[in-house]
Write a structure and sequence with these properties.
2 domains, elongated, mainly alpha, 138 residues, 5 helices
């Protein structure tokens, strides 16, 4: 069945499914130019789509009509090609030295490491604990 022949609701479901695949294959979080808030909102939307899908499709059709129906069908077709043919390369971030090490660091070294925006919560906690221990040493 051609994407434009499917119902709008089916195409919207297919689009969300493909966007989930795209998100799983790509790492938006570390991608330059993609705001963290956008990634969080995108995740929220994908996770809650099932609860909202009937309202969304009705609202979009009422508000935009046939153009939105065609746009969603076109997006499904394009994403199918990209996702199914592995045309979307997985973005690999450059390897970074491990933050948690057993080596002795100074407070200044730790402060420099804490400026890294790619740190996980666990790494930040570990560095802050290490920094606190260094500050409390005689």
């Amino acid at each position: 069945m051609d994407d434009s022949d499917r119902s709008f609701s089916e195409n919207l479901d297919q689009l969300i499914k493909l966007l989930r695949k795209l998100k799983d294959r790509s790492h938006f979080e570390g991608m330059p130019g993609v705001p963290k808030m956008f990634v969080m909102n995108f995740d929220f939307f994908l996770q809650n789509y099932e609860r909202m899908k009937d309202q969304i499709s009705d609202q979009l059709l009422q508000q935009f009509g046939e153009p939105i129906k065609q746009m969603v069908a076109d997006m499904v077709e394009q994403l199918k090609e990209a996702v199914d043919e592995d045309a979307i390369p997985e973005i690999e971030s450059p390897p970074q030295p491990p933050i948690i090490t057993g080596s002795k660091r100074t407070v200044e070294d730790i402060d420099q490491l804490l400026k890294n925006p790619a740190l996980t919560e666990q790494e930040i906690d570990h560095l802050l604990d290490e920094r606190s221990q260094l500050k409390n040493q005689p």
